[in-house]
UniProtKB/TrEMBL annotation:
UniProt xrefs under InterPro entries: ASHA1/2-like_C, START-like_dom_sf
Gene3D superfamilies: 3.30.530.20
Domain Activator of Hsp90 ATPase homologue 1/2-like C-terminal, chain residue ranges per copy: 25-161, 193-321
Protein name, entry field: Activator of Hsp90 ATPase homologue 1/2-like C-terminal domain-containing protein
Similarity annotation: Belongs to the AHA1 family.
Family annotation (CDD domains): SRPBCC_CalC_Aha1-like
SUPFAM superfamilies listed in its UniProt record: Bet v1-like
Pfam family, one: AHSA1
Length: 326
């Protein structure tokens, strides 16, 4: 097992534990491993306890929600709240446990963690400092196995950052099933955060790229840009055949990072999904993560079987080539 950790220090007076680890990759590569939930899942949990992130909003005020799955099926859950983010250099979060219903367990310890990324002659260094509320809490958390668990988790980072291809720009939409009725679709779009956000919320731009296969047009494009507003998109083949569309309501929106909407095919509103769109700057562009929650597993399977991911890939490729390239 590779162990990049070079130093662990505990200071009861300062109520901190600091872990220093070195990696033979550029700072940006290491940063992106923490910014991309697909990669973070591969090393956030200790060996044998893989993590699943159902939310990961890496911007000030953003949240992350995740659970780890133990060898016997246990699923302890936790959350982050991002206090500060300086892209490529550092981020700071509050870190706590979640209750079974997903809400924050504020009766358990809530720690403050700072992750600082530095360039070295050999690559990059991560300085991970956890701040506790008291010396007693530090001792309590250490007795729970936090140090061993963190070191076990970090032993997996080298393998993740060595993979230079799977998460790079230019890869097609990836699909990951989460739980029984969710799916996460991800892709790095070659464009800035603001450009990709605008392309998803400007009707003129949407009509140019969100078309799926060749031969379709978008005669109706009504965008919702505030909580409570509705949107309506309709497509048809050139010539006016096979018209269909989707409608929904904006539940949350925080430009240019995150939006949450409902979505239902027009005429089939009883099968509405909840779509959580998150945009995150990464090397080569902007990581788009779309978490879709379906009413049940059967509908998820039915929709994915229609070639949903392939249709999205066609549209995103058009977005890059016909909208963002110029």
């Amino acid at each position: 097992m590779t162990m990049p950790v070079t130093n662990v220090s505990k200071d009861p007076q300062a109520m901190t534990m600091t872990i220093v680890a070195d990696f033979p990759v550029p700072v940006r590569r290491l940063w992106d491993a923490y910014a991309d939930p697909r990669q973070l899942e591969k090393f956030w949990g200790p060996v044998g306890w893989p993590a699943t992130f159902t939310r990961h909003d890496m911007y000030p005020g953003g949240e992350s929600q995740y659970y780890m799955t133990g060898p016997d099926g246990e699923r302890p859950a936790a959350w982050f709240e991002f206090i500060a983010v300086t892209e490529g250099q550092s981020f700071e979060v509050l870190d706590g446990f979640s209750k079974e219903d997903g809400s924050r367990d504020l009766e358990s310890p809530v720690m403050r963690m700072v992750f600082a990324f530095e360039e070295t002659t050999e690559g990059s260094r991560l300085v991970h400092t956890t701040h506790f509320n008291s010396a007693a809490e530090l001792e309590q958390i250490l007795e729970m196995g936090m140090e061993e668990g963190t070191l076990s988790a970090m032993s997996q980072i080298d393998a993740v950052v060595a993979d230079l291809q799977s998460f790079a720009a230019g890869q097609a939409v990836t699909t990951q099933l989460i739980g029984e009725h969710q799916v996460r679709l991800s892709r790095v779009i070659r464009g800035t955060l603001d450009e990709v956000w605008k392309a998803h919320h400007d009707p003129e731009l949407l009509r140019r790229w969100q078309l799926g296969p060749e031969g379709w047009t978008m005669p109706v494009c009504e965008v919702g840009t505030a909580v409570g507003e509705t949107y309506r998109y309709e497509w048809e083949r050139e010539g006016g055949q096979d018209r269909f569309g989707f409608t929904g309501t904006v539940l949350e929106i925080e430009a240019p990072h995150r939006s949450v909407t409902t979505e239902a095919m027009i005429g089939q509103e009883e099968t509405a999904t909840t779509n959580e769109l998150t945009l995150t700057p990464v090397d080569g562009g902007t990581l788009l993560s779309l978490l879709v929650t379906y009413p049940d597993a059967a509908l998820r399977e039915t929709i994915l079987a229609t070639g949903m991911a392939d249709g999205m890939e066609t549209s995103y490729a058009r977005l890059e080539s016909e909208v963002l390239s110029g």
